[in-house]
Specification:
Length: 306
């Protein structure tokens, strides 16, 4: 009376190994330069940005590890594979950044009470290099930012860093122009606010997906209407949509057909096609039932089929 149809394609995300390797190397070199000059001229803005860029290196390593783990093949103990590793990477990436920015804001607030002189031209030169490095790294991940939350996290961090470096340049220019010693900790606070604002959505989305929340780009009511609109389908129940990883969405549902066994293959084929086209749901598992069987299916009340 029921037909299980599991059409799980293995749609792995585009390879970003080179992007991760180049991005990590560029940012490690820049962190060293920024930390040395920040220490030499006593610039909290440069030291703070160096610390932030170091956390971004850790974030890139996390994202790369998550992407690689997500490509491991399923086995008898992990039947979905390790795709969820990319969601975990995005979550810890966001958490790491939020903690780093909290530490930065605390230090900057302490410095506001006793601002110290610094060297504006050195700040401008080093931060200018940062604009180039961060922009180049962000461009490496631009093409994958829409289809994968993990890659989007890497892109947003590096694009945000480019803007932060621009802010540091502006701060150095203001110091040279007006001699405002307080501009350095103020720019550090601005850096923290910008990064927290940009990171919060990544944090909340990845946390939502970790608890099997419906991905943001999927409207569950529309999915239900689409399935109810299929030829011969009179009822949909036990509908679940969740993220297997940061680039693959899964769906399971029970479809009740008016005429048992009539046109089952056609219904399944159309359901898969429509779900893929409209919601990018690629891993679809549907159970087809007659009205008589559906009346005895206890999953409609959240337990198990009798």
């Amino acid at each position: 009376m029921s037909a299980g149809h599991d059409h799980g394609h293995d749609h792995t995300p585009a390879e970003f190994n080179s992007a991760f390797a180049i991005g990590i190397a560029l940012n490690m070199a820049f962190v060293a330069i920024e930390a040395v000059y920040g220490w030499k001229i006593n610039s909290l803005a440069l030291l703070a940005d160096a610390g932030h860029n170091l956390s971004d290196v850790a974030g890139l390593v996390l994202a790369w590890g998550g992407a690689l783990a997500g490509r491991l093949r399923p086995d008898a103990r992990h039947t979905y594979g390790w795709k969820r590793a990319s969601i975990l990477a995005a979550f810890f990436n966001a958490l790491l950044l939020l903690l780093a920015m909290g530490s930065l804001a605390w230090e900057a607030l302490g410095r506001l009470g006793s601002p110290e002189a610094t060297q504006g031209w050195t700040i401008i030169a080093v931060a200018g290099v940062g604009i180039v490095v961060n922009t180049a790294t962000a461009l490496l991940f631009m093409r994958g930012r829409k289809g994968d939350l993990n890659i989007r996290g890497a892109f947003l961090h590096m694009a945000g860093d480019a803007l932060v470096s621009l802010g540091v340049v502006v701060g150095g220019a203001l110091y040279l122009w007006q001699g405002w010693a307080w501009i350095d900790p103020v720019m550090s606070l601005a850096i923290a606010v910008i990064i927290v604002a940009g990171t919060w959505s990544l944090f909340s989305q990845s946390l939502h997906l970790l608890f099997d929340g419906v991905p943001g780009q999927v409207d569950l009511a529309q999915v239900r209407r689409l399935l109810l609109g299929l030829p011969g389908v009179t009822e949909v129940h036990d509908l679940h949509v969740w993220a297997m990883g940061t680039s693959q969405i899964a769906l399971t549902a029970h479809l009740v057909l008016a005429g048992a066994g009539a046109g089952t293959d056609a219904v399944l084929q159309e359901a898969e096609h429509e779900l893929h086209e409209h919601f990018d749901i690629r891993h679809v598992t549907l159970q087809v039932e007659s009205a008589a069987y559906a009346s005895r299916c206890a999953l409609r009340t959240g337990t198990a089929c009798s």
